[in-house]
Amino acid sequence: MKGTRIMKQKMGTNNNPILWVTIIMLSTCLCAPITNAKYIKYKDPRQALNTRISDLMGRMTLEEKIGQMTQIERSVASTKVMNKYFIGSVLSGGGSVPAKKASPETWIKMVNQFQSGSLSTRLGIPMIYGIDAVHGHNNVYKATIFPHNVGLGATRDPQLVKRIGAATALEVRATGIPYVFAPCIAVCRDPRWGRCYESYSEDPKIVQEMTQIIPGLQGDLPHNAKGVPFVGGQSKVAACAKHYVGDGGTTKGINENNTVIDYHGLLSIHMPGYYNAIINGVSTIMVSYSSWNGLKMHANYNLITGFLKNKLKFRGFVISDWQGIDRITSPAHANYSYSVHAGIHAGIDMIMVPYNYTEFIDELTLQVKKNLIPMTRIDDAVRRILRVKFQMGLFEHPLADTSLIHQLGSQEHRELAREAVRKSLVLLKNGKSPYKPMLPLSKKAPKILVAGSHADNLGYQCGGWTIEWQGLSGNDLTQGTTILTAIKKTVDPKTNVVYKANPNQKYIKSNKFSYAIVVVGEPSYAETQGDSLNLTIASPGYNTIKNVCGSVKCVVVVVSGRPVVIEPYVSKMDALVAAWLPGTEGQGVADVLFGDYGFTGKLSRTWFKSVDQLPMNVGDRHYDPLFPFGFGLTTKPTKGY
Ligand code: BGC
Ligand code: BGC
């Protein structure tokens, strides 16, 4: 157009044909980049990150921007929906899979299908697919399941946790997924909380150290990029520190409840992990359902925008929790307009809607059009989302291929998980007198008894967030080694291993067992379903302990997401081991019980005598635990470390 106008002007005053040709050539050449759209700046990876973001944002409509801010669940996603609403992100909720026991190829196909819908939009902005990979790629069949965070805290080994992050990234990428909702950097201050196992420790320092998982998941930050969101290529994933902030501090550990603490307490206990997460380049941060002193975190402008974005200079994007904005009002969704306004105003950039996306999109669009939410707020959100997508190379590599599928549940990763299990075990008692230790156990005993509800239950061993959101019971949920199988593999081939879940005393006494291994603990649970005021183990666990330990020399192995009531039974036991939620590699438990490796784990939590002492944390003035924070006996390895 511009060229034609120039030509017309010139035509009136000049008839020189040579000049004409020159003008036409010049104008075509000037206009080509605009009219033919051959060169698109934001698509050019040689351009600076900010140039690409600004160029793309300059082309986006309000509709396209709000689409970027919308995350929907895979069960409501389709190529068409992605395309029509410009959806910026899709997630798998807990247990949400394309098919039961789906192969990595099936996962990749699904993710790529959604992606093709996004790529065929006008601007072709890729969506980002996210999933909870909180102890390995836990929704996926045959993935390596690592110990839950409470056990990793007991290892005191941030480099191990970093390696676990790198292995998890590979397994997640094996299924075509570039984004995980992990790590949970909650500081659980009360084990009655159903998510306590997702927390590395009650001690903020340990949680800070364990943020090493972030460079494991995302890759090492380049030296000049401290504190900048960073994902190092196609074998790494974007991480998400959660749940900001104070999720582990709620009264009586009630999930999603109120954390009552002064500003100093918030900053010194619940915030430190976020400093390290940001320094380590975390790409995203998820907001907590919980409230701080009565104000919902999802509506907390001062902590999200004021502190996280302005003060800490976090440059990645802030994501809501699942229906997190709905829950700003009580009952949830009671006043959705208010929820949308409060959440977006507070500074949340991406909304995990995850089902009623048209309602969210319509509401937010209306509020922007009415100037209730300024365009600058929308632009801040979109800029952050695009920054992460550009930086991680999603524009250049939006579609996954099958080159990493062999990584899923690989032998190498299982060995790593087994090492983590070994290092996470905490030995709480060894022998009725310190001079007569029971452990390590003899591999050559003629006949041993294995008892308890958790000895041969892979599902319980893995805990919540495994295949299903709430976890499962039994052995066919995925591939792995139960503690019973591991024991059988470890002892001498001539040793007779007898398994009985809940044997009675008569039976035990009439058999000549050299000793017994009792494996008991909690059933699987996640989130609110795990909230517990009594912290007891699953029945008939105490009975099993009484019967077995009353009849034969016994070691009790507790499989649980947290310290549980264990008194008045400790005196009856010869040895006691906290195994936490070890995951699929039960062999790690046998490795240490039988002395191939020594016990090294230290409690990352205080073990209470009775629940009426709770909350009780290291450093408290009245501290009278059964086993203090940091406690853990050692044994000499006969091989290993
Ligand atoms: C949990 C988050 C999780 C999200 C997606 C929520 O219920 O609180 O930790 O990332 O669901 O599954
Ligand atoms: C969980 C999701 C899960 C859903 C099931 C949410 O609170 O975080 O991951 O799929 O509930 O209803």
Number of helical regions? 22
- Record the strand order, biggest sheet: 12-17-16-15-13-14
Residue runs with pLDDT of under 50 for 5 or more positions:
1-15, 17-34
Shape by Cα distribution: globular
In terms of quaternary structure, the protein is single chain
What is the CATH level 1 assignment of the largest domain? Alpha Beta
Mean of residue pLDDT values: 94
Q: What is the name of the CATH architecture of the largest domain?
A: Alpha-Beta Barrel
CATH superfamily of the largest domain: Glycoside hydrolase, family 3, N-terminal domain
Percentage of β-strand residues: 5-15%
N→C terminal distance: 75 Å
Radius of gyration: 28 Å
> What's the number of structural domains?
3
Explain this structure.
With 641 residues, the protein is an alpha/beta fold. It folds into 3 domains: 1-38, no CATH class; 39-407, Alpha-Beta Barrel (TIM Barrel), CATH 3.20.20.300; 425-613, Glycoside hydrolase family 3 C-terminal domain (Rossmann fold). 35% of the residues lie in helices and 10% in strands. It has 22 helices and 17 strands. The chain has helices at residues 2-13, 17-35, 49-59, 62-68, 79-85, 104-119, 149-155, 158-174, 204-210, 213-218, 263-270, 272-279, 301-311, 336-346, 357-369, 375-391, 411-424, 458-462, 483-490, 505-510, 541-549, 587-593, and strands at residues 70-73, 89-92, 128-131, 179-180, 240-244, 258-259, 284-287, 291-292, 295-296, 317-319, 351-352, 426-430, 447-451, 496-500, 515-521, 554-559, 575-578. β2, α6 and β3 (128-131) form a beta-alpha-beta unit. The chain starts with a helix and ends in a 48-residue tail after the last helix. Residues 93-96, 322, 469 line the site of one beta-D-glucopyranose.
